[in-house]
Amino acid sequence: MITTVAFDADDTLVDIRAAVTAGLHAVTAAVADPALTLELFTADADEHWTLLPDHHARDIRAAAMRYTLARSGREHELDRWLELFFEVRYAHSRPFPEVPAVLDKLSRDYRLGYATNANSLADRCGLGGRFAFELYALENGVPKKPARGFFEAVLAAASAQPDEVVYVGDSYAHDVAGAAAAGLRTVWLNRSGAPAPGPVRPDVMITDLAQLPDAVAQLHG
């Protein structure tokens, strides 16, 4: 019997791409250096997310921005622009339009959890008070997904057995393969409809979060 539905945050519940783009736009405009373009800030950030996958999300962002600023000898300005980035990023961090209705419907029958690798704090992304528990990787000894320990922390927070928890996310490697390896039920939010890139199959695949209540009901049996 399913008792708990736990969610990834970025690109699952939270429209992080729009928020990050707004933050980098603000920094680029304020820095006002023709050599430090939005495209450069974005490319350096993408590279650092690949180079530093085990680091805290804020630390990755800081390292990437320092690297970009250093291209013009302005790395000493990091704190100023990092603060601006996060101010604007959080001001634009909002759930996808369908999220409130989906959470309202699921909360009638299940405990809801919020469990993320990144730093999209629920109460700063328009989702405060929605969840029975919140879990952030690299806090309180919790490793990052897809580590088994992350999902064990989800189970502990939910006070549930693996087959009682559905984990919902957009990343095949982190949210499907990682959760399945720990025994959780999985729903893959695969908006593109692309085939699974590996042998692990989600319990259910959906292309729109609005399909989630029916998917969980299907697993609940």
Structure, explained:
With 221 residues, this protein is of the alpha/beta class. It is 44% helix and 12% strand. It has a six-stranded parallel β-sheet with strand order 3-2-1-4-5-6, sandwiched between helices. The model has no long low-confidence stretch (mean pLDDT 96).
Order of helices and strands: EHHHHHEEHEHEEH
Label the structural class: alpha/beta
Report the total helices: 8
- Mind describing the biggest β-sheet? 6 strands, parallel
- State the end-to-end distance: 8 Å
Morphology: elongated
- Rg (C-alpha, Å): 18 Å
Strand order of the largest sheet: 3-2-1-4-5-6
Mean pLDDT: 96
SS elements, strand count: 6
Strand content: 5-15%
Q: What percent of the residues sit in helical stretches (DSSP H or I)?
A: 40-55%
Question: Which spans have pLDDT < 50 for at least 5 consecutive residues?
Answer: none
Topology (elements, then pairings):
Layout (H helix, E strand, L loop, with lengths): L3 E4 L8 H16 L6 H14 L5 H14 L7 H14 L7 H9 L3 E6 L16 E4 L11 H11 L6 E5 L2 H10 L3 E5 L14 E3 L5 H9 L1
Helix pairs in contact: 1-4, 2-3, 3-4
Give short descriptive properties of this protein.
alpha/beta; 6-stranded parallel sheet; 8 helices; 6 strands; elongated
